[in-house]
Design a protein that fits this description.
alpha/beta; Rossmann fold; Helicase, Ruva Protein, domain 3; 4 domains; five-stranded parallel β-sheet; 49% helix
Length: 460
């Protein structure tokens, strides 16, 4: 690559004439570009998706897929990619249409080689400036979000999660967020969207997959056509389509049925949906984030969750720690929730008494951050003055049921499982309920510990 063309990488040339492709390939390589060629529009669409070219140079008049369709596909994938249209039958009307559709330049065949090379260099510089501008905007947004919208917490476990979320946010990668109920999976998903380039072009859509029956869930996800089932009185746009240009968050994806999982796999593989009752697919431009509180690896072993879907979802994995492993974050969360209650409910500021604060720190919070927020809201309502006493907190917080390691009357011949259960719960209790430390002490993986506790009915 020559110095004057430094920074120029891939140019995808699309034409249905092989002689033109070969001559342009030689020209571009000699001028320091890295050329790729596609014969015809269909092959061009495939290479656009796989190559992510810096510049696209395409003929307008081609069978099956023409240059305007190529332009539209490029604009959807990456609006910063310049598209140069070539045609032997240029008209003012077609040129105006091309520019209105977002083409960088419209050049008429036959053209001089130096004319085309000059246009390509301008396109490369244009792309470079647009990419730098987007990066600058993204950095500004990241700093603003970090100052105002960063999820609350300073513990090491939590800051590691946020650091990874901030790293993957600018990418298009699918993210699987795992954690117990109430740990803040949707909060983290929204944070990823806010830091992404999609925050400018699209919205954040979400759905709880476990809250709807299969038939209704598929209609919400993929949409439906009029008359496809009883009550379908008109066409309905699905949330995948509604989130076009933005981010779609599938919460509790582990609750989906095998039939729905097959359709979700198609979405991830082909980036298209087929509405209920329709036959033609609809292309989508949506980034997918998913979350679950289930052990999906165990679900795969039990054949209740598809292995191929799991690996499609698990490109980037975020594991959210439970609140009992974020003790340092509890005072910050308490302050945040009390300030929010002051703003939404009014009546002046309220603070916790020392006894109430001690009770909150001592409790294990099986419902995690959501349970803490609900407990504080109840305490706020129950308190008329400015000081929240321990009596205003829920009884489960002030008088938690102790962990029972063994029955009062031990079985005369205890089973191996009962002995294992007692030992695991004893270690967990000795570690203050911290499952990560308990797993280390037991010499097993945290996921194995979670599965055993779930089998014992002691998860939470």
């Amino acid at each position: 690559m020559s110095e004057r063309n430094a920074g120029i990488a891939n140019v995808l040339v699309i034409d249905d004439e092989s002689s033109i492709l070969e001559s342009l390939r030689i020209l571009l390589r000699n001028e320091g570009f890295t050329p790729h060629v596609a014969q015809g529009g269909r092959q061009g669409l495939e290479q656009i998706a796989s190559l992510s070219p810096d510049i696209v140079l395409t003929d307008v008049r081609m069978p099956n897929v023409d240059g305007i369709e190529i332009l539209s596909a490029v604009r959807k994938q990456d609006p910063t990619t310049p598209v140069i249209l070539m045609t032997a039958q240029a008209t003012l009307q077609s040129a105006v249409q091309a520019v209105n559709e977002g083409a960088f330049y419209y050049i008429q065949k036959p053209f001089r080689n130096d004319e085309l090379v000059a246009i390509l260099r301008r396109a490369a510089e244009h792309r470079k400036l647009r990419v730098e501008n987007q990066s600058l905007k993204q950095e500004i947004r990241r700093r603003e979000t970090s100052m105002s919208g960063r999820p609350v917490g300073k513990s090491r476990a939590w800051t590691e999660v946020l650091r990874l979320a901030e790293t993957v946010a600018p990418t298009e990668s699918t993210v699987l967020i795992q954690g117990e109920s109430g740990t803040g999976k949707e909060v983290v998903a929204r944070y990823i969207h806010q830091l992404s380039l999609r925050a400018e072009s699209g919205s954040f859509q979400s759905i709880n997959c476990g809250a709807l029956p299969e038939s209704l869930l598929e209609s919400e996800l993929f949409g439906h056509v009029k008359g496809s089932f009883t009550g379908a009185v008109k066409d309905k746009q699905g949330l995948f389509t509604a989130a076009g240009g933005g981010t779609f968050f599938l919460d509790e994806i582990g609750e989906t049925t095998p039939a729905t999982q097959v359709k979700l796999l198609r979405v991830l593989q082909h980036r298209e949906v087929i509405p209920v009752g329709a036959t033609e697919p609809i292309p989508i431009d949506t980034r997918l984030l998913a979350a679950t509180n289930r052990d999906l690896e165990e679900a795969m072993r039990r054949a209740t969750f598809r292995q191929d879907l799991y690996y499609r979802l698990n490109v980037i994995a975020l594991h959210l720690p439970p609140l009992r492993e974020r003790q340092d974050d509890i005072p910050l969360l308490v302050d945040t929730f009390l300030q929010r209650l002051e703003q939404t409910r009014g009546g002046g500021a309220k603070v916790l008494s020392e006894a109430a604060s001690d009770a909150i720190r001592a409790y294990q919070w099986p419902g995690n951050v959501r349970e803490l927020e609900n407990a504080l809201e109840r305490a706020w309502i129950m308190t008329s003055g400015a000081r929240i006493e321990v009596s205003a907190l829920p009884e489960r917080v002030t008088s938690p049921t102790p962990v029972r390691l063994l029955d009062e009357r031990a079985a005369p011949n205890p089973t191996l499982e009962s002995i294992e259960r007692a030992y695991i719960l004893w270690v967990l209790n000795a570690e203050g309920g911290n499952k990560t430390r308990a797993a280390e002490a037991l010499g097993i993986d945290p996921s194995t510990l979670h599965r055993k506790l779930s089998r014992f009915g002691a998860e939470g």
